[in-house]
Amino acid sequence: MKIQPLYVSALTLFMSSLLVSPLELSAQNHESIEVAPTNGNGSGVIHNKSYRYPEFIEGKVTFKNGTTTTANLNYNVFSGEVEFVKGKDTLAVDNLFTIASISIGDDLYFYDEDSKSLLQQLEKYKSAKLLVKEKYEVADIKSKGALGSTPSSIAATSATQYTDKSQTYNLKSADNYKFKVKTSYYLADLNDHYYEASKRNIFKLYPHAKSAANQYIKANKVNFENQDELRALIQYIESLKN
After folding, report:
1. Same domain for 132 and 241?
2. Which of 18, 32, 62, 98 is the most buried (most CB within 10 A)?
3. Cα–Cα distance between 58 and 72 in angstroms, integer?
4. Nearest CA-CA partner of 75 in 115, 45, 102, 39
5. 205 and 103, same structural domain?
6. Secretion signal: which residues (predicted)?
7. In terms of domains, do 86 and 202 share one?
């Protein structure tokens, strides 16, 4: 398995130079974190707070060619990567397009090449799978103004940058950055084609049940960002006869 040291990524370089604010909460609780860059004075606490699991636990990587490898793994909610420790280095599983699945404890992850994201399986049904993507994103930037005030701002001109794969942010030590976990739900067919959870994609996965599904969605005002409502919708459709 080819691996890539995380310390070369822009995200890890940034996170290693942050000072954690008192408002910081654990990533395992899916809350927000507020941090502020400092001039080389960082805190290792942020590194531990970024993981989904409180410690690295036994897992297995299964490749598309049928081979497997085992290691103690963890999911980094900041980088969206699965990591493991080798010696004194924290490494990320690379070449995800060659991987069929990654298991961490009882949880199972799949790689969606279109969104370039690792998705955690929540439920496997007879005709589909429900999955979730969770990753920290920049929710707000507050720049210190006159008298130490911190109005919200997106302006910054430092050469230091943070990149979250979809957008690059310029950073400066006078700013406070708020990160919040973004949760997105996905659906997959039996051939592992992945789709964002939406009414349109429900119809694509269950063309035989389009009319009944549409009636259910309207009657129950299904929120496709709500896990419980998505589960109930899929269970209802799966209960219908083809």
Report:
1. no
2. 18
3. 4
4. 102
5. no
6. 1-20
7. no
H helix intervals, 19-165: 45-49
Q: Check residue 152 and report its DSSP letter.
A: B
Number of domains in the chain: 2
Residue type present at position 14: F
Whether the model clears a pTM of 0.90, i.e. scores above it, the answer is no
User: What is the CA 92 to chain-centroid distance, rounded?
Assistant: 14
Locate 173 and state its tokens: 């030590």
Burial of 58 (0-12, 13-18, 19+ CB in 10 A): exposed
Give 211-241 pLDDT, tens digit per residue.
Answer: 999 999 999 999 999 999 999 999 999 999 6
Highest mean pLDDT among 27-31, 143-147, 183-187: 183-187
Contact (CB, 8 A) for 188 and 195: yes
Among residues 21, 16, 23, the alpha carbon closest in space to that of 41 is found at 16
Tell me if residue 195 falls in helix, strand or coil. strand
The answer on 228 and 191 residing in a single domain is: no
